[in-house]
Amino acid sequence: MTLLQIMADDDAATVLLRTDDLDRIAENLAPFGITLRRWATVPLPADAAQDDVLAAYRSEVDTLSAEGPYPLVDVVRMVPDDTDAGVERARAARLKFLEEHTHDEDEVRFFVEGAGCFYLHLGDKVYAVVCTAGDLMSVPAGTTHWFDMGIRPGFCAIRFFQAEDGWVAGFTGSAIAATMPTLDELLAPAASDLLSLEGERNG
Ligand SMILES: CSCCC(=O)/C(O)=C/O
Ligand SMILES: [Fe+2]
Ligand code: NI
Questions:
Q1: What are the C-alpha distances in Å from 79 to residues 40, 63, 181, 195?
Q2: Could you tell me which residues come within 8 angstroms of residue 107 by beta carbon, excluding any fewer than 6 positions away?
Q3: Which of 95, 129, 188, 190 has its Cα between 20 and 30 A from that of 18?
Q4: Binding positions for Fe(2+) (predicted)?
Q5: In whole numbers, what is the pLDDT of the chain averaged over residues?
Q6: Is residue 160 a contact partner of residue 65, using CB atoms and an 8 Å limit?
Q7: Using CA positions, which residue lies closest to atom 1 of ligand 1?
Q8: % residues pLDDT > 70 (the chain)
Q9: Which residues neighbour 68 within 8 Å (Cβ) at sequence distance 6 or greater?
Q10: Whether the CB of 161 sits within 6 Å of ligand 1
């Protein structure tokens, strides 16, 4: 389920909007030049490699590339792995994107599987966009943002780069990311919601 939660940038508890309505999400992002589109997903085997993923989406990738150019298209895939080495790999991968940064190029990402959250720092608000399978998001160059793949990452995304050097970020040095809910917190129903649900069932 794709989700948008808008919060005040100085107080994450001030939730201005939370919606899973795709039209409302796209409407709220459009003024910033951010687009969110949907592609139909293709089932893939659990051990699909980068080339298999790209082959499965060849026509979509080619169509988008014609709008580019995107000289580099790659695939990031994280499979939950509870071994000590897997947990360490996941921790390192998560940390790489977890601080606020910008790119000199547009950030264009298609979610093939799983979920991840982009936090877009726009004016005095943070727009947390949980992308799930089928979401194609494009964020203009220079937009301050960070990304959380969660404590136990499980996602696959195709990345479209406008330059051949791939992922290059300029970190802002801001500590804002640590003040906002993580992907896992955004997806977990609040304890208060569970209590009221329980009340409804018993009442
Ligand atoms: C969803 S792909 C991995 C994250 C990434 O490429 C990025 O730029 C996050 O800000
Ligand atoms: Fe990014
Ligand atoms: Ni980034």
A1: 21, 28, 22, 33
A2: 118, 137, 138, 139, 141, 143, 145
A3: 95
A4: 101, 103, 107, 145
A5: 94
A6: yes
A7: 157
A8: 93
A9: 160, 162
A10: no
Q: What's the confidence (pLDDT) of residue 68?
A: 87
Other beta carbons within 10 angstroms of residue 192's beta carbon come to 8
Model confidence over 60-115: pLDDT tens digits?
999 999 988 999 999 999 999 999 999 999 999 999 999 999 999 999 999 999 99
Nearest alpha carbon to residue 103 among 162, 169, 148, 35 = 169
Does the domain formed by 3-202 have CATH 2.60.120.10?
A: yes
Q: Is 107 annotated as a binding residue?
A: yes
Confidence class of residue 196 from pLDDT cuts 50, 70 and 90?
A: low
Least confident of 44-53, 86-95, 138-147, 193-202: 193-202
**Bridging pattern class, strands 135-139 and 125-132:** unpaired
Ligand nearest to the CA of residue 161, numbered in listed order: 1
Q: Do the annotations mark residue 121 as ligand-binding?
A: no
Q: How far is the CA of 113 from the centre of ligand 1 (A)?
A: 14
Rounded to a whole number of angstroms, the CA Rg of the chain reads 17
Q: Is the pLDDT of residue 154 over 70?
A: yes
Distance of CA 73 to the CA centre of its chain: 17
**Tokens 């899973």, residue located:** 20
